[in-house]
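Students often ask why we bother encoding 3D structure as a string. The short answer is that it lets us treat folding as translation between two languages. Here is a chain of 283 residues written in the first language.
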Amino acid sequence: MESSHRPIVPSSGGPIGLFDSGVGGLSVWRALVERLPAESTVYLADQAHAPYGPRSLSEVRELARAAAGWLIEQGAKLVVAACNTASAAALDDLRREWPRIPFVGMEPAIKPASERTKTGRVGVMATPGTLTAPRFHHLVERFASGVEVHTQVCPGLVEWVEAGRLNGPEVMADLRRLLRPLTAAGVDHLVLGCTHYPFLAPAIQQVMGDKVTLVDPAPAVARQVERVLAERGLLAPASSTPQHRLATTGDPTRFRETLAALERAGEIELNAAVIARKENARL
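And here it is in the second language, the structure alphabet:
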């Protein structure tokens, strides 16, 4: 930890680190790789402790701290908490613990949804950890004045994505049941408040209909990462040859199978990414 060892100085040659409870954060990873093709990345899926959503905020803080610490040990020059629950619970603590490392987090895209709504009604689908955190309520108070914000907890969707199941009768039945209140409320923008949910976007769009706009924060996060790296002089040279490493705290075989399912669905392109298991970790 920075507080007990020599200060950590990030280098432009280091990778961008990302972590999530599972594969959901790869929806942010793909946006980063597309926007910053010269940057290397190291991604940690903390599948041994997934999902984060139902856990207490104190548990999530400890898990996020361990995940961020491992990424920094790998040389990460910037860490993305590619998980709404972890960002809500731990982002401020992580920034205090590693003041020299820039952190970028996730937050439900309340602001753009509220600015663009025509009906004055927006929906947010998220985990309990995101919706109960003070950070979420502050977002609503700050950016959604005069707008009805309808929230929906969506248990089970993270598990579908982790299993590589993005469609099919059972997935669609769950989505229709979970999204029925938001449809009835007449929302015209739906915020995807968990990084797993963009992988279900085609199915969600099918349930909600073409008149509802889905709002995925991943492109905005990629833009923020680019801004922070540029401000700190940490952008990799355009001529760099990027390397991408994907790691899990869980079962590496299951991890590979899920990644293969996401590739087959056209959701991600791994190219030459190295898939490895993170050993000897207490996350």
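Translate back mentally: The two ends are 15 Å apart (CA to CA). Keep this in mind for the problem set.
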